[in-house]
TrEMBL record:
InterPro entries: C69_dipept_A-like, Peptidase_C69. PANTHER family: LD30995P, SECERNIN. It comes from Lentilactobacillus diolivorans DSM 14421. NCBIfam families: C69_fam_dipept (NF033678). One of its GO terms (biological process) is proteolysis. Belongs to the peptidase C69 family. It comes from the Bacteria. Pfam families: Peptidase_C69. Its EC number is 3.4.-.-. This is Dipeptidase. It catalyses: an L-aminoacyl-L-amino acid + H2O = 2 an L-alpha-amino acid. Keywords: Dipeptidase, Hydrolase, Protease. GO terms for molecular function: cysteine-type exopeptidase activity; dipeptidase activity.
């Protein structure tokens, strides 16, 4: 699959002192170029990890180390176009989300062209996550791959561990910068180069290739006196103003209404590093990543609005494929600290399900997705719900929202129950217990979701065009 098919994601990062419980939180919608692009949730074991990796959608190939860790991933259900592992947590509780596709301006691309044999979104999780023991090591591994192989696209790549979050942005074929997200901050990244001022004397918070400043100076790339990565390497196009920037504007409006007061959704000076005036929850992240400009003139679902004429691309829409929020908790044992909250299909209608990642296998309803529609599969079940609810938004959303509130409560309940069980379980038996408990969580959620689908089908069927009742006479 061409990389443009996966070029519309939205990322939210929340430092440990900005989150509601002291966890690091990294989240990203994976959006495709089409509405239906089936995904599955899997555990990759060391024996299944390739040693000679060859991409299917590009010319990239690499020899991989012999010591991979177990890790979770959310790859394509049909792998004819490659893996596209997207989001996961490894056995050492390091999380990775890859990638937030971004743009690089023509001056940079002329000085450092993209390379067809380089690494890309299809590959990055597979060739990185099994081999790193910290978020910082994630940046270092990708940096080495970029140095040796380059890349054929510009990307934002996210790493976290229980202490740190790092956001890495590539520019051109071989250049990049990574910034440690401050513990008390949050970030919203919408397919644009985001990192701003780079402090070259602060290795605790910035990483970059050794030649970065010389490269910029030699090629006359800096239009200003300071070193602003976004202004030097990024773009500021009409597409950005309508497709990308408004998503950051709406997210910042949600967390800090005063910060965007008077600013246009097309503003080109929204900050990268932001600070909320309250702690950020899982529900907050889900709301923003499901949003479509509610309570603004730009909501495509507002009464009387022609959705085809709305000026800005929503965050939550039909091309969402999966959302992973990776939560690394500091207040429980490391062996049960990592949770991947997962949602499939369009985010305005789905719910997050908490899956502990120290497991042998994922629940069948989430792991056995195929290219054929199956209402017993989580991806397809949620895709059906989104199809029906979108076309009957105002008559069905009360049912959807009641379901969402109930299931989020259930998710938090399950985390608390499993934490208590894990605390009483020996390390030798913990993986099996967490695997079994994930199955129980998934079973309940699937039953509730199938009940929701039944209600929506019944109600929507009474409202289809051409319906007729004897009450007309």
């Amino acid at each position: 699959m061409d990389s443009s098919e996966h070029s519309s994601c939205t990322t939210i990062l929340v430092g440990k002192n900005a989150s509601y419980d002291g966890s690091t939180l990294i989240a990203r919608n994976e959006d495709a170029g089409v509405a239906v692009n089936p995904k599955k949730f899997v555990v990759m074991h060391p024996a299944d990890q390739p040693r000679n990796y060859h991409a299917k959608g590009s010319q990239f190939a690499i020899q991989l180390p012999d010591n991979p860790q177990r890790y979770t991933a959310v790859p394509e259900a049909v792998d004819q176009n490659g893996v596209w592992g997207e989001a996961g947590i490894n056995g050492n509780n390091v999380a990775m989300s890859a990638t937030e596709t971004i743009t690089t301006n023509s001056r940079v691309l002329g000085a450092d062209p993209l390379t067809k044999s380089g690494v890309g979104e299809e590959d990055l999780l597979t060739v990185t996550l099994p081999y790193i023991n910290s978020a910082r090591e994630g940046v270092q591994r990708v940096a080495q791959i970029l140095k040796e192989h380059g890349t054929y696209e510009s990307n934002g790549i996210i790493f976290s561990d229980v202490n740190e979050i790092w956001y890495m942005e590539t520019a051109g074929g071989h250049h990049w910068v990574a910034q440690r997200i401050p513990d008390n901050a949050y970030v919203i990244a919408p397919n644009q180069t985001g990192i701003q001022e780079v402090d070259f004397n602060d290795p605790d918070n910035f990483m970059f290739p050794a030649d970065l400043r010389d490269f910029v100076k030699t090629n006359h790339l800096n239009p200003a006196n300071d070193f602003n990565f976004r202004k030097i390497f990024g773009s500021d196009s009409q597409l950005d103003h309508h497709y990308n920037t408004p998503r950051a504007w709406y997210g910042q409006r949600y967390f800090n209404p005063e910060s965007v007061q008077g600013k246009s959704p097309m503003s080109n000076n929204l900050p990268f590093i932001c600070h909320a005036d309250r702690k950020i929850t899982i529900e907050d992240i889900k709301f923003v990543l499901s949003s479509h400009y509610q309570d603004t003139p730009y909501d495509p679902f507002a009464p009387g609005v022609d959705y085809e004429k709305t000026p800005y691309r929503p965050i939550g829409f039909n091309r969402n494929q999966e959302l992973s929020i990776m939560q690394l908790r500091p207040y429980v044992a490391k062996s049960s600290a990592a949770i991947q909250w997962l949602a499939f299909a369009a985010n305005p209608y789905n719910i997050l399900v908490p899956f502990f990642t120290n497991i042998d296998e994922t629940p069948a309803a989430y792991g056995n997705t195929t290219g054929l529609l199956d209402s017993h599969n989580a991806y397809w079940l949620n895709r059906l719900i989104s199809l029906i609810a979108t076309d009957h938004y105002h008559s069905l959303m009360d049912q959807v929202e009641a379901y969402q509130e109930k299931e989020m409560g259930y998710g938090h309940q399950r985390v608390a129950e499993i934490d208590k069980l894990a605390a009483k379980t020996s390390q030798a038996g913990l993986i099996k217990v967490l695997t079994d408990e994930n199955d129980k969580t998934a079973d309940t959620v699937m039953k509730d979701t199938q009940k929701l689908l039944t209600k929506l089908v019944a109600q929507a069927s009474n409202r289809v065009r051409g319906s007729f009742t004897r009450a007309h006479y």
